Every structure is written in structure tokens, then in C-alpha cells.
Amino acid sequence: PLLASRFAAARVRGFQGDDLSRADALLATPKHFAGYGAAEGGLDYNTVDISERTLREVYLPPFRAALDAGALSLMSGFHEISGIPSTANPALLTGVLRGEWGFRGFVVSDYTADEELIAHGYAANGREAAKQAFLAGTDMSMQSGLYMRQLPGLVAAGEVPMARLDDAVRRVLYAKLRLGLFDQPMRGLDGPPAAQRAEDPAFIALARESARRSIVMLKNEGALLPLAKTGTRVALIGPFASGTQDLLGAWSLFPGQSAPVGIDQGLRAALGDAASLTVTRGSNVESLVPGGIEAAVAAARQADVVVLAIGEGERMSGESRSRADIGLPLVQQALAEAVAATGKPIVVLLSNGRAMALPPVVRDARAILVTWFLGVQTGHAIADVLFGDFNPSGRLPVSFPQAAGQVPYYYAHKRTGRPLLPDAPGTAFKTRYIEAPNEALYPFGFGLGFAPVRYDSVALDSEQLPMTDGTLRVRATVTNTGQREAEEVVQLYIAQRTASVTRPVRELKDFRKLRIAPGASVQVEFALRAADLAFIGRDLRPTVEPGDFDLWVSPSAVGGLHARFALVR
Q: Which of 299, 378, 438, 561 could pair with 458 in a Cys bridge, judged by C-beta atoms 3.0 to 4.6 Å apart?
């Protein structure tokens, strides 16, 4: 929740800027309200059934952060929560948004979500669907046309009060006023077309910087990376090795976009000597290439190192791209296994839009870079990291599971009454899988750089934190033991040992990104207050309870420097 809240607030500030009437400002619309991420089976548009406590503690905070940052519109979800479709849920759209949070903006339905109340079995027809959605607090209908067709009759019949219609209209007009649309109705549509603006050198530079900062290095056995630019024969193999398809990710279907820089193009530009790079697809994303695996094996045998570009294609990620198996497509697994059999060192470039369950052939690679969908500067950004022109600094915002059966896997899970403790004897009749470890393959917050970093010490300025007007200062020393500058994300986690509502094994409370010179040590400081330790109590309201807490300063949600303190009255 903390990381998602920081993301949400930053995106709102980025879209809207300081002045919504500026020509380049956009109205931010957080979506989908609320709890859509908990859809059963990870299936898009599916049902959500979670407790109100989980909704309020996990799923609502990022929306509140987005609205606090200034968002003036919000989109309802396709899903239902506990039997009530979100687009017609007055407890959410009026109770929480208006009553508790005082939201002044408007709520827009997702694409035909108001009409879909009929398919949900919640409304008998379009008239009833429009009435229920509108009275619940959905101010604007997207695409279905239901409001345009049904609201005049509903108001005339007295089934929708005129006051409710006035409220919805007022909210939309308020947003238009803030956007400056009364003074300039077409503002933002003049000037050069979007495709031309996208070629601005400043935008291109930012795209490259954003892309390389998004890369997460999961493994670098024997310091295989960075690769030398000279004297190294590189075989670039895989369905993403050449071409520009599948590099932009989902929702990249709009005209006028710049073609991305292919991975092969980026590597050639970095190497200089084109003869030192061979490029072989080996397979398509989900189908064979005739003779492709044989050609890939031959290329690998002639190389010093293999860069294996595998993973998910654009059409395997994003909306309506739910996967029952979040592993590597079988044809790519066969390709990877054949290449690995040559014994050549392998660097995996993992293209993906989600945390994946990695097969052994990927886990066993000497180096693994998670490259997601990096956009128009994909090839250059990957080359920057592969050849050491940029030190990878990205960290995982999700946990990678051991197997798909662990999903949903999240670091902030509960202990259970039979926890599997590492120092406890015996494993029978514990909370465990029989085929896989409980922990993540790669945990939330994890990521490596080219400079190794050591966490040396942690100290608290007190062993007690008063519940009223108190601040606990946490200081830790982090040392760069490498030969180049390190960029480290230092994370602060806490866990309350005993409470009136069971608490997670860890909760992220803050993080800092540090630049540390070679051989240098840096002290990082965090400040904890009682409000940072609040949770949703039995009465479904935020509460803070005295008690004993564990604290960790660490590079991920696992391990780290440990300390204890007590929250006291």
C-alpha cells in the first residue's frame, strides 16, 4: 500500500502539474475504484470478495493518496465486491468518496460498466442500470449512452431527484473550469501533432533514462555483467532479439507513435563492431520458427556469451490478457534449454508485464535482467545496462513466486497459527507447500547493482516510542564495497508482535534511495511516529495500539538489520 500510494500521488502530480489550465496538463483519473486487483484467479473483470478491513487497509490508501495529490476524476471498476457491482456501489462512491473523503471531483464509469450491471444480474434493463449507477454516485457514463437515453425520463418520473442531477453536472463543470475549458474549449489540441512532439530530444532522453532505471537485475553470478564492448562475441537469441514488435507493451495500439529501438539495434550501436554480434530469433513468442532452435544453438556455440531475450509478448499482458500459467511459454522454454545445453554463459533479458514463475533454465542463467516493456528506447536502455554504461538501480515492486500455485503472493502476509519458522524443528502440519518453499523466488524490493553494498549497523535513538507526540529515529549505515558508485534503495519495515487484529509479518513504512561513492559509507535516517503504526481495528476505523514491534532496515522484504522497540502510552 505504501509504494502504490507513492506511485499514485506521483502520477497525479505528473499528469496534472501545478496548474490544470496549462495546455500540457491532463486530468488524472485513478482507477478502478476499488479493490479490482483482488479479482478471483487473477482473471480480468472477475468477482472480488474481500473483507472491508482488507479493502480499507490495502486497496483504498493508494486512491486516497491520489485524491490528496489533487486528482479530480475517478473511474469505477467493472468488478463487484461482495455482490455489489462497483459502478452501483453507494457505500464506495458516495459513502467513502463523498462522505469520508470529501471528494469534489466526478466519477466516470469504466467502458460500458453501467450497462454491464445487466450482465451482472444486478439490473433488469438499461433504465434500471442507469438509475442504480447514477444514484450510487457514478456521475458520467462512458460509451454505453445509457445516461443520455435514460436520465431524462428518470428525472421526469421523479425516480432520480433533480438535486442529484445538479450535483453530477456541477462536478463535471467544476473539472472543466479547473481545466480552463470555458476559456479555451479546444486547449491542448493545437500545436504540433503528438507524434511530432514525441520526437522532442528531451522526451527521447527521458524515455531512455526512465527505461534503464526500470530494469531490475535479479542475478549476476560471477560478475558476468557488465559485458566488455570489445573482444566479446555476443549471440543475441530469442523472440525479442530483433524487430520492434512487443517492446511497447499493452495499450500501444494508437497511431502516430514512434517505432521503438530494437534490442539488436541497441546492442549494435553500443558494440561498434557489428561483426561481434549475431542475432537469431530461435522461436516466436508462442510458436516455432522452422529450424529456429537449431540455428540458435549454432549461434550460441560460436559465441562467448548468449543474451537470451525471452518472456511475454505485448498480447500476453495488460487488459483482457489474463494468464492461467504465468510461466515461460513452452516453445521459449525449449529454446532456452537447447541454448543452455551448449554450456555458454547466458544473460536472460526477461520481457514481462507481471511477476512470472520462472522455470529452472531461467533461474540457472548466470545473469537475469527483468526488462518489462521499456518503450521507445528499449534497445539503447538494455545496452546501457548490459555493457555497464548504466548501473542498474531498479527494485521489484512485486514478489516473484516460486510457482504459480503461490499466487497471490505478497510479502505482507499473515503469520497463521501454524507458521513455518526457519529455526523451528519439524515441518509437518505447518503452513507450507509440499513441492515448493513458502518464500518468494525474488522478494518485493529486491534488485542488484554492479557495486556490492553492505548493511553494517542499525541504531534507534530510543527503545520506546510514545503514542502522543513522539518520534523514533532509526539510523543505519550502508557501505559500498565496490569499485563504482552504488545507487541503493534502503527500506524500512516493521511488524507488530501482538494486536487486537492480527498483523502482517512485515510492512513497508518508508524507503530512501542513496548514492554511495566507491568505498564510502552513508548513514540513512528514518523517522517513525505513532501514526505510521496505525491499522484498521475491529471497529473498521484506524487505530494505534501499544505493544512490541520488530523493525528491519534492509535491501528487500527479506532479511536486513533487525531491532526492536515498544510503542507506549
A: 561
**Cα–Cα distance between 149 and 162 in angstroms, integer?**
16
Cell 520458427 maps to which residue?
289
Cβ contact 530:467 at 8 Å: yes
| DSSP class of 59 | I
> Which tens digit of pLDDT belongs to each residue from 86-121?
999 999 999 999 999 999 999 999 999 999 999 999
Distance in angstroms (rounded) separating the CA atoms of residues 276 and 171 = 61
Average pLDDT, integer, range 265-280? 94
pLDDT of residue 253 exceeding 90: no
Phi, psi dihedrals of residue 275, rounded to the nearest 5°: -70, -20
What would the DSSP string read from start to end of 188-199? TSSSS-HHHHTT
With bands split at pLDDT 50, 70 and 90, how would you rate the model's confidence at 385?
very high
Question: What is the arithmetic mean of pLDDT over 180-206?
Answer: 84
3-state secondary structure of 236: strand
User: HSE-up of 383 (CA within 13 Å, CB side)?
Assistant: 22
For residue 518, how many other CB atoms are within 10 A of its CB? Answer: 12
Class of domain 201-386: alpha beta
Provide the pLDDT confidence category of residue 190 given band limits of 50, 70 and 90. confident
Specify the residue for cell string 493508494: 62
* Residue 96 per-residue DSSP state: I
Q: Which CATH architecture has domain 2-179?
A: Alpha-Beta Barrel (3.20)
Q: Within 10 A of 483 (CB to CB), how many other CB atoms are there? A: 10
Instruction: Indicate the SS3 state at residue 293.
Output: helix
CB 375 within 8 A of CB 258: no
273: annotated active-site residue: no
pLDDT at site 282: 97
Cβ atoms of residues 412 and 398 within 8 Å: no
Instruction: Look at residue 199 in the predicted model and tell me its pLDDT.
Output: 82
Answer whether CATH 3.10.25.10 is correct for domain 453-568: no
Decide if pLDDT at 192 tops 80. Answer: no
Nearest to 179 by CA among 344, 48, 26: 26
Every domain of the chain and the residues it spans: 2-179, 201-386, 453-568
The catalytic position among 110, 114, 264, 384 is: 110
Coil, strand or helix at 508: strand
From the list 366, 369, 362, 364, the residue with the least C-alpha distance to 384 is 369
| CA–CA gap between residue 377 and residue 393 (Å, rounded) | 17
Give the position of cell 527479506: 558
Contact 378, 344 (CB under 8 A): no
DSSP code of residue 216: E
Cis-peptide, bond into residue 226, ω within 30° of zero = yes
Q: For residue 511, what is its C-alpha cell?
A: 524507503
